Amino acid sequence: MNPPPRTLAALLGASGVLLVLALLMADWNWARPAVVRYIEHKSKREVQVDDLQIRLDADWQPVVRLRGLRVANAPWASGSRPFITAREASFTFDWATLFSDVRVMRRMHLVEADVDLQRQPDGLRNWRLTRPDDRGGARMRVQRLQAERSRLTLAHRGLGLMLEARSTPLAQPHDGRTQRIAFQGRFGDAGWAGRAEAGPVLSMVDTGERFPLRGEASSGDTTLAVQGEIADLMQLSAVDTQVQLRGDTLAQLHAFLPRGEWPASPPYRFDGQVVRDGASWVTRRAKLTLGRSDLAGEARYTPARAQRDGRASLQATVTSERLRLQDLPSRHGEPALAAARPPASTTRVLPQRALPLDALRKLDGRIALQIGTLEAPKWPGAHDLTALATLDRGDVQVQLQRGELAGGRWEGRFALDTRGKQPEAALQLKARGVKLTELWPGLARQPDVHDVQWPAVDGSLKLSTVGATLASWWGGVDGQLDLQFIGGSLPKKLDARLGLHAGRMLSTLVGGNQPVPIRCGALSVAFSGGVGRTKELVLETERTQVQGIGSLHLADESWALVLTPQAHGGTLPASIVAQGTFRGAKVELAQREALPAGAAGRCGA
């Protein structure tokens, strides 16, 4: 008579439990010689194990515990140390992956161990025992590491990385930190060293389990200090730390952050909270000093691989009391503004380089910026700047909401649309009350004009162009420039010279060089195809009106100007002709040019 199905299932279950209990209670040293011989045969190395036990942990996962462990190093490995020695080593595996291509070790626990890891440039690894010649991808994922009074060295010759780390227990555990880890090594030609305090178990990959960490590392003049919590050391799946980073130049960061080439910069210091929120990296309450510049604010960066559309995202709010453009980093070993200028040997003044279109198309973002003082070489300082920059699928919008430069108030907008076959750019600027001598301090140092009271300027500029390089931009500019001069005066002698009036020039020798008020001044230039032509150019005093026509060719940086003076109540016999490039000019008198119809414009009203 056959037993009922339920009874059979119960008998099988009980038999399985008894078998598991028997395996757990068994002394596995009976299998130790066979296991050692198998590993020695596969690895071609000497192996020693004094005690072997197999148990199940609280989650019913298999735990292999070895005592008195020693495994010789690979024949090709450098040095005389064995691959591993350990008073005790425990390995907890995941049942579900034991027969997979990549096995998961849930925990590695080492006690008084000395581990020497070596990897050749071709992928040969000394820790592969059963497949010593396998140069393929990873076959074991260690999720957690607990090392007590142990040393680990790593020589990754493919990366040029050398590392030595030693763990010792803290005499007084604090805030969950129970061990001290001292480390040193090299990455490429940069050496570094430091120490850290951490919890007893370090999560390595795929756990999301946080552990406390406080540490400091230095490489040359660069120092990194971190305090907080992180998860999965090899992935940094979660980060919540306070970070301090300082050094003489960002170019030395390669020792700590090897991805990409870091640019040269002045000395810097960064302080802030760094958080990983999902796939995004966030900085909060961040402060950065760079040379004599300062920046503060918050930012969120999401890499392209975490975005559905495959483009990275940057959101930031930045404030600065003082920002010097010459402090900004450059990949060419010099200040960013200097690197942006053409070489000294060229005759060009306007930059000609290509635009970083690929980078713009791969990044979306929004940056709000407030600057107390903005400094640039050979330019006056700008103050009280508020700007907003957005980048959406290759469409760049930069709005200057307000700003003060050369005593005037400015606002404007720059747009760059890279979505079409040819990038399109547009610029709009408005300014009120600009002081010319502050905008171009060299004006006040010119001969014979030191007594000029320069007028203030109101103006507007609208330009548009198409092209993938700055050089192509200059040859395709369309738009309009309008300037109006307000107030100011000329010394009587200069007024006479502009009017080509010899008698008034002689009168200044007797009557003095009194100021002559400027009644009106205006300039209007229309641009088409990179060529600007004056629609209006006039300067008027109580005795003289100077009108002019001119042209400006941005592509070859040449210009020409004809100024024709006219005394009130009479006609003067000559014109002033000037021409040149952005680097030089010549001026001469010529036969009087006929004035274009309506040239007086606003001043003639």
UniProtKB/TrEMBL annotation:
Pfam families per the UniProt record, alphabetical: AsmA
PANTHER family given in the database record: ASMA FAMILY PROTEIN YHJG, DUF748 DOMAIN-CONTAINING PROTEIN
Protein name (record): AsmA family protein
The species this protein was found in: Piscinibacter gummiphilus
The AsmA domain, residue ranges: 192-535
Stretches that traverse the bilayer: none
InterPro entries in the cross-refs: AsmA, AsmA-related
